[in-house]
Amino acid sequence: MSAFETPVKLGRELFEINTNVARRMAEIAGEGIKQYFETNQEFAQKLTEVRDVTSFFELQRDYGKTLYTSATDRLQTQGEVVKEAFELGGEALRTAFNPVQEAEQASAEEIAA
After folding, report:
1. 3-state DSSP assignment of residue 107
2. What is the pTM of this model?
């Protein structure tokens, strides 16, 4: 690859990685908002059935637990997306700036051509 092709290819790969991460994060956030509203509706319906203080506090505890579990699941998923992006970005950088690997790729391309 020429001196100009390597940075262009790297820029393209990093742009694709960033685009995919942004898209996936937006999907996760949208799913979280949808789940939050559904949880609120579900517990609001259950609230009408509460007749004493004890059941109210149990409902409140379940509500908090449900929100906490949902939030931690989303954060874990987002962490996995970011981890994958770092791995892909690191691989793209190593490929772009590793001259031995570039020479091997160039010779493989020459053989294929």
Report:
1. helix
2. 0.74
Domain that holds residue 19: 5-112
Between the CA atoms of 49, 55, 60 and 61, what dihedral angle is there, to the nearest 10 degrees? Answer: -140
Residue 82: Cβ within 10 Å count: 13
DSSP string, 25-48: HHHHHHHHHHHHHHHHHHHHHHHT
Which pLDDT belongs to residue 97?
82
What is the rounded CA–CA span in Å between residue 18 and residue 96?
Answer: 17
User: What's the mean pLDDT in 81-92?
Assistant: 94
Q: Can you tell me whether residue 5 is helix, strand or coil?
A: helix
Please give the structure tokens belonging to residue 86.
Answer: 């770092």
- What total number of domains does the chain contain? 1
* Residue 7 near residue 96, CB atoms below 8 Å: yes
Query: How far, in Å, CA of 73 to CA of 18, rounded?
Result: 22
pLDDT in tens, 6-63: 888 889 999 999 999 999 999 999 999 999 999 999 999 999 999 999 999 999 999 9
Note whether 81 and 25 are within 8 A (CB).
yes
